[in-house]
Amino acid sequence: MTVSNRLGITELAATQVDRSATVNEAIAKLEGGSALYGCVSVGDTAPPGSPAEGDQYVLGASPTGAWSGKAKYIANFYNGAWIFIPPLPGAQAYAADEDAYYYYDGSAWALTSTSGGLGDVNGPGSSVSGNLATFSGTTGKVIQDSGVAISTDATLGSNSNSKAPTEQAVKGYVDGRVTGLSWKKAVRAATTGALPANTYSNGTSGVGATLTGNSNGALSAQDGVTLVANDDLLVKDEATGANRGIYTLTQVGDGSHPYILTRRTDADAGAELVNASVYVSEGTTLADTQWTCTTNATITVGTTSLAFTQAGIGGFIPASTTEVLTGTDTSKGVTPDALAALWEKGSDVASAGTVSLGEGGFFHITGTTTITDIDWATAKDGRPAWVIFDGALTLTHNSTTLKLPGGANITTAAGDRACFIQDSGDNVICVAYIKADGTAVVSSGGTTKPFLTFLPDDQEYAGSNYAAIGVRNGHPTLEFDTTTQQTAIFTGVLPASYAGGGLTADCTWAAASATSGTIGWDVAIERIDAGTLDIDADSFASAQTITAATVPGTSGVTSKTSCSFTSGAQMDSLAAGEPFRVRLRRDVANDTAAGNAQMISLVIRET
User: In this structure, are 214 and 309 located in the same domain?
Assistant: First the structure.
């Protein structure tokens, strides 16, 4: 009797049955496709005690008992006995106990996959768990190399351009590169002031650096947030700037232990802190804000003072309302809300001896208490404010703190309006007063002397060499060049109450950048008399000089200088009730300050 070539199945002899050729052909075809075996287990070496009919096993090395000598064979329990099928290269077996597939490579059964996967890939010793391996489109194999690392820190610092040259970067990486910032994981809260007394230890060049409370007790709430262990905190307000940074609360603190804050691992090296940006999640005042370390490289942790500044979209750093009102910062932007603090209607202010005006440029003053001084909560020379008086009270004139029209006290009425400007420090001038009934302001000594106020926006542009309009911290200015004599011209009507005492021109100004030298002006008047003046040509009277005055030592501080006109030729024979033009020029030939001179206001008053 013969056996089949592949599976060793006993074949029928030709004399045993007329259909032997057909049966043998079927056996040959059967064994030709027998390459997948459903098995109870793969790798067993001892037969089970009570096998079930049809149970099938792939045997391991050196099997024993009824399986002896059949290493790596497929054993099938058939008709109460074991029959064995030799393994063929490429044969596959399913192990039910593992839910896994194996294949025979000619010498051993190797695991192909589990749960229907693509199987294990054995990389080299240099490969890293979590890396992406590459796939060969030619061979259909996974290439066993170090693969491509995908970082979770949004820096893609170890990304391989040769492995994945068109790889799409993660959003954090793109956002950071677009804005030029180094984004860090969000913190729960940020400080709004110095932490409770503590001692700083710099660890190993910043790694493991700590802030430890000087006494036992839990860390107090920061911006209204009570932190728990492992919460992150932006520490930005320590008096010692080198101690600032991004920390983790590693010890909360209690009656027996102090609090301990440890520099977070993504912000404990100098390079990590350059442009470091972080989002604050919670807090009474700082929730949902973004902060950026504005300290430039090179940063030495524990030595270099760090500064964190609130940032906005795309790196925009907004100035606070206070910074807008004081004009103290040159590197930040202005939000519409903060800008409105210069002109919007502010809260009503109760009358008092000293009235303090808050945010805004327009206020109602309530009550009837006598006012002896008007100030601003955030003071800045040149800052104006309009007020409406809601009741009758007395404004007390003071030649050094509250200068009123006519140099005398004013009794207000409900509906009266007035404009006040801080001239220099506590020296506040009322530059306009309009009574509710339209009548003139009358002091206790009689009719007040008339005056006119000209502001930058009142300028009538000359044909050439005119002063350009500018803005400084929200204040309109006229910019006068330091070399070319430029002109500003204004038109007004001399009040009918003018009594013939001559005029005085008061110019309030500032230097654009200079903090030394002098600035001078000249002022001329042109009468517009009906039937005589030809407006196609200028006919200003001789200019009167405002003697050059020393520039304040602090840029932005204003000065007021004056010149006078006697009635007659110096005033171009101007009379009460007549229109006129006044020309203001910088006396560039006689002053010495560098940069522009900025006119804030020009007041023409009766001397």
Answer: yes
Q: Is 22 helix (H, G, I), strand (E, B) or coil?
A: helix
Under a CB-based contact definition with an 8 Å cutoff, are residues 433 and 417 in contact? yes
- Pair type for strands 362-366 and 384-389: parallel
- 168: number of CA atoms within 13 Å, CB side? 2
pLDDT of residue 136: 58
Pairing verdict, β 109-114 and 559-565: unpaired
Separation of CA 191 from chain center: 17
* Interval 497-542: pLDDT, tens: 888 889 999 999 999 999 999 999 999 999 998 888 888 889 999 9
CA nearest to 37, candidates 97, 101, 99? 101
Q: In the prediction, which pLDDT does 341 show?
A: 79
Q: Are 286 and 378 part of one and the same domain?
A: no
Residues 601 and 460 in one domain: yes
DSSP state of 61: S
pLDDT given for residue 444 in this prediction: 47
Are the C-beta atoms of residues 344 and 328 closer than 8 Å to each other? no
d(CA 142, CA 132): 10
* 246 and 300 assigned to the same domain: yes
CATH number, domain of 516, equals 2.60.120.260
Task: Give CA–CA dist 75/156, Å, rounded.
Answer: 53
User: Can you give the pLDDT at residue 124?
Assistant: 47
**DSSP-assigned letter for residue 551:** P
- H/E element holding 518? strand 518-527
Query: Residues near 192 by Cβ (< 8 Å), separated by ≥ 6?
Result: 222, 223, 237, 283, 285, 286
Q: Which two tokens stand for residue 454?
A: 């000209």
Positions of the chain with pLDDT under 70 = 1-34, 113-179, 312-317, 330-331, 440, 442-448
Q: From 431, 448, 465, give the residue that closes a domain.
A: 448
CB-based contact 584:555 (threshold 8 Å) = no
Instruction: Single out the residue in 413, 448, 483 at which a domain terminates.
Output: 448
- What are the residues facing 572 on neighbouring strands? none
Q: Could you tell me if 601 and 454 are in contact, meaning their C-beta atoms sit under 8 angstroms apart?
A: yes
For 376, the enclosing helix (H) or strand (E) is: strand 373-376
Residue 511 within any structural domain of the chain: yes
Q: Is residue 127 part of a domain?
A: no
214: exposed, middle or buried (Cβ count in 10 Å: 0-12, 13-18, 19+): exposed
Bridge partner residues of 85 (DSSP): 74
Q: Exposed, middle or buried by CB within 10 Å (0-12, 13-18, 19+), for 138?
A: exposed
Are both 486 and 569 inside the same structural domain? yes
pLDDT of residue 440: 66
pTM, two decimal places = 0.35
Domain that holds residue 506: 456-606
Q: Are residues 465 and 581 in the same domain?
A: yes
